[in-house]
Structures
1.
Amino acid sequence: MAQKQWLIITIAGLIFITACNLATVTPTPQAVLSSPIAPTLPPPATATQTFTSTPFPKYFTEEFNSDLAPWEFFQTGGANSATVNLENSLFEIYITSPHTWYYAIHSANEYSTVNISAKVDGNTDGSIGLVCYYSESKGWYEFNISSDRTYSVLFGQWLAGGIAKYTPLKNDTSGSLEDGRITYEMGLTCQEKTLILYINGNPFGKVDVTRYGLTEGKVGITASSFEEIPMTVFFDWMKVGEK
């Protein structure tokens, strides 16, 4: 079973604050994280790519066979920029540097009770995740599956420009997960006080988030690399629906 460690990544002007002691750390030039459990994210204004929002239904199935509007993308960590590509109705994220985190937020609508699911496929040494209740001012929840049979649920929150706090809500292993390639249908239901986690259509975890107070926000997806590169992730489809 993989050992999880919390280290510090270098991003100019970024500071990572762990949920355990909430201490402020000054980044150093060569520091890295061994796992993408709690990356420091850049402020939304520094998003690497932005696509203009267009009218979009609230509940939908994204099959990635057209353009990427109204998705918004940003990256944190990594020496190289990740590449996004649409091909054969697949949304590909190609990461060529270790310790790189890439996020895509669907900006068209906000949701109170919502179910997100996605068919995902990725090679070893990385993670794939779903995001709900994303709000620049209030924070977001994130459910990640890693290639070492572990999963995590996080509460992320902007503190100031370039400063983010992450609170791990759950870190564990699951018999529903396998070592190696990440090939699953993963799901996340967000219903104000509770998050429900799914693998291949089966619920396997529930997290009480009452104390964090999020009640609505945007949805999204994420992918990240660990030590081994390149990391290639494919999203076959993503569904957003009512509970």
2.
Amino acid sequence: MSEPLLDVRDLHVRFPTRQGVFEAVRGVSFTLGRERLGIVGESGSGKSMTGRAILRLIRPPGQVEAARIALEGTDLQSLSERDMRKVRGQRISMVMQDPKFSLNPVMRVGDQLIEAYRLHRRGGRAAAHRAAVEMLEAVSIADPDRVMRAYPHEVSGGMGQRIMIAMMLIPDPRILIADEPTSALDVSVQRQVLTIMDDLVRDRGMGLIFISHDLNLVAEFCDRILIMYAGRVVETCEASRLHEARHPYTRGLLDALPRLDRPTDRLAVLRRDETWADAPSVGS
């Protein structure tokens, strides 16, 4: 069996508070191959913190501990901050929530794409410009030359999402972490952006971590799913078999979703059990 792209073991993220230490992520373990891995759960379940912790983006007073965080065999915890900056973007890229607002509002789109290319890959400005235009075309932007000259406020939300995806993929990373990248988009644009991401990930043989609260979307788009609750992974399953999930938390989330094929007068209310938060995380 080939080595996974990413191996995370017993990951913890803690924050000191006046009431004591709050554990945002508690003992999460999983591996990622050349696949689309979905991480789902309610707000506050630890999904985004997991993605940020992998890239060491949790700043003090936050604390990150793990038995292992390895990228193709390289222990990320042992790297210096200087070496870690080479990992971010070049080997692992992350599209944040509301990615359009991650763009610099006072720089033209083209200048930001060119900067991302030259930061991680060798080449002059002319080569960087060509690569930026090609990447905009790859994310289905019809008039890339015009967009290169535009400022972020001059593009639509859907186009801003695609620009950020292009910026994250231009260094040709091994892994893309997408944190709710389509949450602010309407359904038609959302599907278009997902198709673009899917095509790029498959063509490049990358691994994708897709963080979302939308169970149906993740079930349709991903290969495997981790379900998180209170900082722990309570269940893992194949995406195609999500509706066969057995954990009562996953069943509660599924039952709370409206379904066209099974209309009901009243949706079920998710009932939580205190023991779910204390049970050991499920490994993957």
